[in-house]
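MOLECULE: protein
FOLLOWS: sequence and fold
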Amino acid sequence: MNYLELFWGFLKVGLFSFGGAYGAIPVIREVVTEYDWVTEEKFAYLLAISESTPGPIMVNTATYIGNEVGGLWGSILATFMVCLPAFIIILLFSMIFKTFLQKPFVAAILNGIKPCIIGIIIATGLHMMIENCFAEGITISANWQTFIITAILLFVMFLYKKLRKKAISPILLIGVAACCGIIFF
């Protein structure tokens, strides 16, 4: 394992991830596949674990992938590198916060980035759902357990919204997904 690759890979993730953790998933996937650290299936598992454990998803994912690739020192390095750019940017922004955010062009830039981030999150979610529902090989075959779990989650999400008139808590949805995973797998 080359720790320099881990250093640069997660520095890129930290530098070029906008829109929060879900916006970072495509960037993390790109870096992971670029360096061929884990398989797509393993990445999906690590991402699911990252979402289920307390803490920021991007940091958890970096920690788990770093551990998978380079052990304890790999996880420390990946976590540090993914957090470093945000720490520096927040430190710099806090110094010029009052004058900088009052500029109209800054507000326009931030408003322009929002739809892009929403599109990236939706595309990532659809990509992961399709990847996990269909097994790739010579012929495409459906994974019936994943279809059932996806249908259950969509049903619970829409039923909750219909009955309670508000969106379901991600924690509750993760709990339902975990129970379904235990039952079906």
